[in-house]
Amino acid sequence: MIRLAQLAAARRIGISLEEIVAEFRVSHRTAQRMTDALEATFGNVSADIGEDRKRRWRLIDPGLDRLQLRQETAVEALEIAAQNADAEGRLRHARALADLKDGLLARTAKRARIEADAEAVLTAMGQVTRPGPRVSLDPTILDAIIEALRGPFRLRVRYNRDQAHRILEPHGVLLGHRTYLAARDPTKADEVRNFRIDLIHSAQTLNETFSLKDSFTIADYAAQAFGVWQDPEQFGEVIWRFAPEAADRAAGFRFHPRQVMEPQQDGSLLVRFHAAGWQEMTWHLYQWGDKVEVIAPEPLRRMVEHHRRSDFSAMP
């Protein structure tokens, strides 16, 4: 009930029955009973029908600070997020998350206990990182990019080995083994391209706005690649067949946000998706040894054909 009240207060237009069903994973009838209980418990509930003809429940001036229960999980989540932001060089986000955590603790009378309980969990949680070198990013470059994304504003950068500066129109950031700025260079083409942030040597946010590319979303753009590398010439259907002994393990992977998995009668598993980035695909496929076969595309099949080892003692 407290969680439902928090949602009804936090969302500007309130919460609908459909959203309650999705949030709490309950039936439509149970969601109706929950809204009945919400109205019976709180005297400041409004239930209005919006433009989409859906009824939404909202708490007006809820004063939910008196209903906050245990804050350990929130403190843990904010601390972990701050650590990740700091490790990635996003210092302004790390500071903001730390400030949120301190503000949350300042509003509770049981700060010492909450900090102790959260610290116990955080101490017991280790961070698993991939082996190999890690690309370091300049926090001042990231700050400039973030400011430009907020506008959106154009960005003056010196990139890679260029002596002259170029003007970019940033559309988003792709996080991966390398971090890329997805941006348009208006002097070259209308398409959005990737720029390695570790190769940006200077960046200045300009007081010049621009229009984002029509219907562009960073989610759709990222989905065009298996990893972070974008190559329109490689984009197409990808089909992998995992052997029966690897099918259950592969079924637990999210190879691509728009993948389709098709269990076969012989116990094998077909995985289909559309993406580019064959080299990043091979880096992953090598780990499966001879337990995976590339059906399509043909160039990718040839890249891994002679590297399907049978002596790997474990699968990913």
Provide an overview of this structure.
This protein is an alpha+beta fold and 316 residues long. The protein folds into 4 domains: 2-67, Orthogonal Bundle (Arc Repressor Mutant, subunit A); 74-124; 139-221, SH3 type barrels, CATH 2.30.30; 232-307, Alpha-Beta Plaits, CATH 3.30.70. The chain has helices spanning 2-10, 17-24, 28-41, 72-87, 91-106, 111-124, 139-150, 218-223, 244-251, 278-285, 298-304; strands at residues 15-16, 45-49, 55-59, 153-159, 166-174, 180-184, 192-196, 200-209, 236-242, 260-263, 269-275, 292-296. Strands 7-6-5-4-8 form a 5-stranded antiparallel β-sheet, with helices on one face. A 4-stranded antiparallel β-sheet has the order 10-11-9-12. Helix 2 packs across helix 3, helix 4 runs antiparallel to helix 5 and helix 4 (72-87) packs across helix 6 (111-124). The chain is globular and about 70 Å long. It starts with a helix and ends in a 12-residue tail after the last helix.
| CATH fold annotation of the largest domain | SH3 type barrels
Total tally of structural domains: 4
Give the DSSP E fraction (strand runs of 2 or more residues).
15-25%
Radius of gyration: 25 Å
Distance between the termini: 41 Å
Helix content: 25-40%
Secondary-structure element order, N to C:
HEHHEEHHHHEEEEEHEHEEHEH
* Count of separate DSSP helical elements: 11
**Arithmetic mean pLDDT:** 85
The unreliable regions are 128-132
